[in-house]
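User: Earlier you gave me the apo prediction for this protein. Now I'd like the version with 2-acetamido-2-deoxy-beta-D-glucopyranose bound, so I can compare the two side by side. Same sequence as before, with the ligand SMILES added.
Assistant: Got it. Here's the input I'm using:
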Amino acid sequence: MSSLCSHPETNLKMIAFSIPGLSIFGALVIESASAAVASTFTAPAAAPTDQSPFYVGASNGTITNSPLVAGKVFDRFIQIWLENTNFAAAASQAVFQNLSTQGITLTEYYGVTHTSEPNYLAAGGGDFWGLYDDDFEAVPNNISTIVDLLDQKAISWSAYQENMPYDGYEGYNYTNQDDGYTYYVRKHNPLIIYDSVSQNTTRSARIRNFNDFAVDLGNNTISQWVFVTPNLRNDGHDTTVAFAAEWLNYWLVPLLEDPNFNTDRTLILLTFDENETYTINNQVYAILLGGAIPTTLRNTTDSTFYTHYSTLTTVEANWDLGNLGRQDTNKTVSNVFSFVASDTGYTNNNISGSAIPLLNLTTTIPGPLNPEYYVPYLAPTNGTGGGSGPTFFASNVNMSLNAADAPAPVNLTAAGTSGSSEVRVGLGLLGTATIGAVIMALL
Ligand SMILES: *[C@@H]1O[C@H](CO)[C@@H](O)[C@H](O)[C@H]1NC(C)=O
Ligand SMILES: *[C@@H]1O[C@H](CO)[C@@H](O)[C@H](O)[C@H]1NC(C)=O
Ligand SMILES: *[C@@H]1O[C@H](CO)[C@@H](O)[C@H](O)[C@H]1NC(C)=O
Ligand SMILES: *[C@@H]1O[C@H](CO)[C@@H](O)[C@H](O)[C@H]1NC(C)=O
Ligand SMILES: *[C@@H]1O[C@H](CO)[C@@H](O)[C@H](O)[C@H]1NC(C)=O
Ligand SMILES: *[C@@H]1O[C@H](CO)[C@@H](O)[C@H](O)[C@H]1NC(C)=O
Ligand SMILES: *[C@@H]1O[C@H](CO)[C@@H](O)[C@H](O)[C@H]1NC(C)=O
Ligand SMILES: *[C@@H]1O[C@H](CO)[C@@H](O)[C@H](O)[C@H]1NC(C)=O
Ligand SMILES: *[C@@H]1O[C@H](CO)[C@@H](O)[C@H](O)[C@H]1NC(C)=O
Ligand SMILES: *[C@@H]1O[C@H](CO)[C@@H](O)[C@H](O)[C@H]1NC(C)=O
Ligand SMILES: *[C@@H]1O[C@H](CO)[C@@H](O)[C@H](O)[C@H]1NC(C)=O
Ligand SMILES: *[C@@H]1O[C@H](CO)[C@@H](O)[C@H](O)[C@H]1NC(C)=O
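And here is the structure of the complex with 2-acetamido-2-deoxy-beta-D-glucopyranose:
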C-alpha cells in the first residue's frame, strides 16, 4: 500500500510506503536553494568557446569520437531544448526573428505530453513510459535508446548539460555552491534517465558539462549527434523568454558562425520541451538551423506535423539506421523533417488541422511509469522507422513480454491490488554531502 502527496514541479514527491514483511521509512534530506538571483542574464565567460567556473566541473579532457560517418543530408545533428515559452512570445523576440531568417520555422511541431521529463524521455527512447511528472526516474537497462542505434553504426554522440557538475552525473539536480542556486536538473537530461546509458561508463562519460563543451569545441571534436540542455535560467524555465533570448545571443548566435560547431553539414533544431498550457494541444516553437539547410529553404516555414519523435526518425533516415520499435515507428507522430524526407525518399503522412492527435494528454497514458495505469516495460515492436534498418532488440530484453501479449493496465495505487512486487527506487545524489533518497513503492 502506498500513498502519494502531490507536489509542485520543484518539490519532491514524498511517499510513505510499506512492503509486506518489511518495515522501512523513506527519509528525505532536502537542501533548499533560496539565494536571490539576478533577473538579467550574465555571461559566464567572454564566449561559449571559453570555460567558466560557473559551469562547475573542470573539463574531463577532449572527447574521443569514432571517424565521421557521412549522413545522407547532414553529418551532425544538434538539438537545443528550451522550456515553457509561448510560440508568440518566442516569435516576438529579435533573436528568434533573426534566427528564423536563417532557417526553417516549423509551425506544426508538438511536444508529446506533459510534464517536462516525459518529453525528454521521448526524445531519448521513443516513448515516455506513461510518465506524467518530473520525479527521479531510472529506466531499466533492457530499454534501448537512440544511443544504441547510433553506436551500431559507430556514429559519435554526446550531450552537454549546463551546470552539471561532472560527466555522467546521476543526481536529481545540482546546486551551485557559490550562489546556492539549483541550475542543473536530471529531468532535462534525456539520456541519463536511461540506465542503458547511465550505468555504462563508456556511455555516461559522453554526457558532459559545458566546460567539456568549450574544450571539445576548441579541439573540433563536437560529436555527430548532440543534445544541449541549458540551465534552468538560461532555458527560460525559471526566467522569461527575454532571458533565454539573451542566452541565445551569447551562446548560439556566435556558435552558428563557428566552423567547429556549425559546418555546411550541420543541422540544428532549436525547440521547446512542451507547451505551457495543458488545456490546448501541445504545439511548441521550433526552428531548424545550420549549414545543412539548403539556401533556398532559409527564411521559410514548414507546416508539416512534427513531434519530438521526429528527431529520432530524422536521424534514422539520415544515417539509414535501425529503429527502436517504439513511437519512432508510429507513422502518425513521427514525420521526418521534410527536406530530409525528400532527400532520403521517406514518405511523410500529411496529417494537419483537426487530424493532428491530441498530445496534451497526461496522467492517463498507460506505461511502467504510470502507477494508475501500470503496464510493464514491454519489448519493442518490430516495425519501420525513419531508416531501412531493423528494429533494435537489446540482448537482455524479454521478448515474451511484448505489446501483442501485454497485460491490461493495472491501478497499482488502488487498495487491495496485489500480485505486483514492482519497486522503483531512486537515489538522488546531490553535489554536496546532502543525499536525497526518493523511494517509491508500487505495491
Ligand atoms: C533538487 O533536489 C532537492 C532534493 O531532492 C529538492 O528538494 C529540490 O526541490 C530540487 N530542486 C529542483 C529545482 O529540482
Ligand atoms: C584540447 O583538449 C585538451 C585536453 O584534452 C585541452 O588541454 C586543450 O585546452 C584543448 N584545446 C582547446 C583549444 O580547447
Ligand atoms: C501552445 O499552443 C498554442 C496553440 O497552438 C500556441 O498559441 C502557444 O503559443 C503555444 N505555447 C507554447 C509554449 O509554445
Ligand atoms: C540579426 O542578425 C544580423 C546578421 O547576423 C546581425 O547583424 C544583427 O545584429 C542581428 N540582430 C539582432 C537583433 O540580433
Ligand atoms: C571523467 O570521465 C570518466 C570516465 O571516462 C569518469 O569516470 C569521471 O568521473 C569523469 N570526471 C569528470 C570530472 O567529469
Ligand atoms: C557499453 O557501451 C559500449 C558503447 O556503446 C558498448 O560497446 C558496450 O557493449 C556497453 N557495455 C554494456 C555492458 O552494455
Ligand atoms: C487538450 O487540448 C484539447 C484542445 O486543444 C482540449 O480540448 C483538451 O481538453 C485538452 N486536454 C487536456 C487533458 O487538457
Ligand atoms: C524573410 O522573408 C520575409 C517574407 O516572408 C521577408 O519579408 C524578409 O525580407 C526575408 N528576410 C530575409 C533576411 O531574407
Ligand atoms: C500512434 O500515435 C497516435 C497518436 O498519439 C496514438 O493514438 C496511437 O495509439 C499510436 N499507436 C501506437 C501503436 O502506439
Ligand atoms: C522482425 O522483423 C524482421 C524482418 O521482417 C525479422 O527478420 C525478425 O525476425 C523480426 N523480429 C522479431 C523479434 O519479430
Ligand atoms: C525490463 O526490465 C524491467 C526491470 O528489470 C522488467 O521489469 C521488465 O519486465 C523488463 N522488460 C522486458 C521487456 O524485458
Ligand atoms: C486508482 O486507485 C486509486 C486509489 O483507490 C484511486 O484514487 C484512483 O482514482 C484510481 N485510478 C484510476 C485510474 O482508476
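For your comparison, keep in mind: Residues 78 and 268 are 5 Å apart (CA to CA).
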